[in-house]
Design goal:
With 134 residues, the chain is of the alpha+beta class. The protein has 1 helix and 9 strands, in the order H-E-E-E-E-E-E-E-E-E. Helix content is 16%, strand content 49%. The strands form 2 sheets. Strands 2-8-4-5-6 form a 5-stranded antiparallel sheet, with no helix packed on it. The chain has a 4-stranded antiparallel sheet with strand order 1-9-3-7, with no helix packed on it.
């Protein structure tokens, strides 16, 4: 009788190493990161955003929810609001790579609400500086 392969036990260390590597890469972020947070439940953050700078909102979901509502606002002004449909890991989702600017510099409120269980990693990255003068 042929011996059954022990796939699950022999691959466990590999899965652990891949997961740890993935977490390290995700949390390194870029030098232009304004926000880099892990979200598993409804959460609020504050970020300082600057007028005349283009930002890109990234979301990554290795084992996360299929949908996440995200709003970036200052008082009644909404700079970004969307429900992200997460299709694949590694920053792949719909709508793809939304970029945004803000009409005034200051502290903005980021609200994230996963619509089912899991953890996502959110990042706001500064893309380009048009003018440093306000």
């Amino acid at each position: 009788m042929p011996e059954q392969p022990k796939k699950s036990r022999s691959l466990t260390p590999l899965y652990i190493v891949i997961t740890l590597f993935y977490i390290i890469i995700v949390f390194q972020g870029s030098e232009n990161s304004v926000l880099l947070e892990s979200v598993s439940e409804e959460s609020d953050f504050q970020v300082n955003l600057t007028k005349d700078i283009t930002y890109k909102f990234w979301i990554d979901s290795p084992n996360g929810p299929e949908k996440v509502n995200v709003t970036i606002s200052k008082d009644s002004y909404i700079a970004l609001q969307n429900t992200f449909v997460l299709t694949q890991p590694r920053k792949s989702y719909l709508p793809e790579n939304p970029e945004f600017t803000v009409k005034e510099s200051g502290v903005y409120h980021v609200h994230a609400k996963p619509l089912n269980s899991g953890t996502v990693y959110m990042e706001i990255e500064e893309l380009e500086v048009k003018n440093h003068n306000d």
